[in-house]
Amino acid sequence: MRDDVDFVFHARHREETRTRGNIAAKLAQIEDHWSPRLLARVNDTDVRIAKIKGEFVWHHHEAEDEFFFVLKGRLLMQFRDREEWVEAGEYILVPRGVEHRPVAPEETHIMLIEPASTVNTGNVRNARTVEVVEAI
Ligand code: NI
To answer: Is residue 63 included in any domain, yes or no?
Structure first.
């Protein structure tokens, strides 16, 4: 039997966290680069999408692992000791504490799965830092 109070709470929660959507349509709304948007929060983990182009900044995340999934284009993930090409349909996990720099020679679309506390520029604060990730 359904508890009405519980039902209302969960209905509201679903609305706020947008439990379904179309990723291509949401990407079409994004015009800037390197500015992740929140698709959904799953427990304490964010699912984010972004368009990227050019070189980002070298940084690391003290406490967060970052999962990058390439939706379109290709991503070059640079580490201090190597670099890895990540093609559309592929993913790469960057462990916490590991310095990295994402680079995209052409416009590339990515999905990020990372703790909600993750700041895009990690330990660095500069013009590309997004303190509050907006939902889309
Ligand atoms: Ni990072």
So the answer is: yes
Distance 100 CA to ligand 1 centre (A): 6
CA of 105 to the centre of ligand 1 (A): 18
Dig out the tokens for 51 from the structure. Answer: 């368009």
Q: Work out how many domains the chain is built from and give that number.
A: 1
- State the distance from the centre of ligand 1 to the C-alpha of 84, rounded, in angstroms: 15
3-state secondary structure of 103: strand
Identify residues whose C-beta is under 5 A from ligand 1, the ion.
66
Q: Give me ligand 1 centre to Cα 120, in Å.
A: 6
Distances in whole angstroms, Cα of residue 10 to Cα of each of 45, 48, 136? 18, 22, 20
Q: How high is the pLDDT of residue 17?
A: 55
Residue 59 inside a domain? The answer is: yes
C-alpha 9 – ligand 1 centre gap (Å): 34
Residue 99 belongs to a domain: yes
Is residue 39 within 8 A of residue 21, CB to CB? The reply is yes
Average pLDDT of span 42-64? 97
* pLDDT tens string 22-45: 999 999 999 999 999 999 999 999
The answer to whether residue 9 scores a pLDDT higher than 50 is: no
Tell me the pTM. Answer: 0.86
